[in-house]
Give the backbone structure.
Amino acid sequence: MAILPTLQGPSDLRGLSYEELNGLAAEIREYIIATVSKTGGHLGSSLGVVEVAIALHRVLESPRDKIVWDTGHQAYAHKLLTGRYARFGTLRQLGGIGGFPRRAESDHDVFDGGHAGTGLSIAQGLATARDLRHSMEQIAVVVGDAALISGLSLEALNDIGHRQTQMLIVLNDNAMSISPTVGAFSQYFSTLKLSSAWQQSKTAYDRIVESLPVVGRPALSLSRRIRRMVVNFAQPGQLFEDLGITYLGVIPGHNIRGLEHIFRAALEVPGPVIVHVRTRKGRGYRPAERDQIGFHGAALPPMPELADGRPAETHAGTGHQPMTGAALSRKDSGMPAPGKPDEAPVEPAGDGSSVPGGADMGTPSAAARLAAATKPPNYTYHFSTELIELARTDRRIVAVTAGMPTGTGLSSFQAEFPDRFIDVGIAEQHAVALSAGMALAGERPVVALYSTFLQRAFDQEVHDVCQNDLPVVIAVDRAGLVGEDGTSHQGMFTLPTQRQLPHMIIASPKDEQELRSLVRTAFAQDHPFSLHYPRDPGFGVPERTPQVLSIGVAEVLREGTRILIVGFGPIVERGREAADMLEKDGWSVGVINARFAKPLDRQLILDQARGKKLLVTLEESVVTGGFGAGVLELVEEARVADPAYRDVTVRIVGIPADRFVDHGSVDDLRRLLRLDAAGIAGQIRETLARMRVTPVVREAEIAATGRPDTPSA
């Protein structure tokens, strides 16, 4: 009798004998082959990992325990073992079973994955959340050999070894990227290292040698070097050992009994363990074994069927091609440490080291120091202090950064909550993916990065955070113009890239007190939330009690009849100043503080835009695809249905596209780019002149004198 159709879930595996399990493995392969021959899909990798999936589900109690599949296309057997047999024939079809793990399909699917290299970071995030809660679930991740050599995987391995995060890492080596030596010595040492005798004797021996007078420490160092050399002679996994990860392997990947034994033993070892499993890609289907590249997927070579509907094993697939510090000059950073308003921080350099002064290494003059001392704290300070205040009552909040604890203000958070602070080093991709893993486990992570460095983690924003619709708060520090660091550091590209992402909420405050409210807003909702704020000092706005704001709701700062300015972020204040200048010319100008670039307050903007001659958007970001583009899209959509908007001209003011911004002080750059108040007013005047529109006061003069120098609208 077939076993596979009778399985209700992975718990049913524990009642089967090893003979029955081997028969089940054969059934799984046959069903995967028969299905993929019709639907297409990733065949070879899923055929190779069948026994690994069975052994993991025998050892672990999913969904309490978590199994992360990296890359997710090797999870077909996992899907069949977790109650999806009846629907598996709809694989990759509209409304059917997905080709990758999908949380909407099953509680056994931990993560909506699809890109290689994310699994280790996700698994560490899950394990970190477990340790913070002091819960007992086990975490395992199956990593393909090709995925292991991605930069993100290496970032994660470095951090896992450093933190000694307890988890099981299964390296599925199907010889596509890694071909280590397999031999009796290797398997013998893996068994030896798992034994309690080895673990205890090694520790006891080290203590005895170290206690020897005079020669103890040198002897201990020599002993460890010799021991490492001996182990390295027999094993290919010294890289992992050097990273602090216990390495076991190489283990035959198609022996369920052997896999189950070593997985159980590995889960008892403190800290991270990597079990190197050797599998054969395409196992059970000879064409896929012979043509491992062609039968990887998702478009496969022809798979001729036999009369009974099963794929024939005669096609060899030959010839098929794969598819293809104090010196920081507080004129720029008004950020004192909490409780020390007269001290400026030391700024980490771009390489993660702390250097006084960042890019500006000169000594500021006494006048500059005096001027800086009178400036209010900057946005980073207010973000950090509000985050700390929230974390005192919400233990789910975990702060993450990538080598920038001081620059992002999180060093203050670290001082108060050291167990809830994580610095992964210069590894922005891992920081974001790790945060996604923690959010999956119910924590509320905030990852604080400079805008320019967040660029490195765009895929993690898309694939890990937004695709899974996770409540990760992304604190985008240094959004907008940064200044002297120049072209590589201006935070001008993040907003357009994030605007296109489903589920992402994007916000920026008009002042430092509104920033505090937006920090609270970010943690009061359950979607990805990107909070943009600049390097600037605040405006010195009097302190007020922060409030949770409604998502996507803007505010009208002043009414006007002829011109409407809609701004996003602290540039709103410069918009208000520009409105004052224009009103002196006779223009009636309204101003909106958008607060949110996504979602926009559609109704408020359209209500205020109705009947206006000119709508001007303001942002300190590149204009292509940014905040202004969103407002323009909104107005253009309204034009089609409502004639009242057909005479509304939209002017987008921001950082010009198709160019980088060089270095200079932020004030100088804003003046150069005409993003200061005078420049904004000038750009609006020029637009009005080209439109040949005059202010109401000018119209009255024309009527009185009869001398129309400029035609009136």
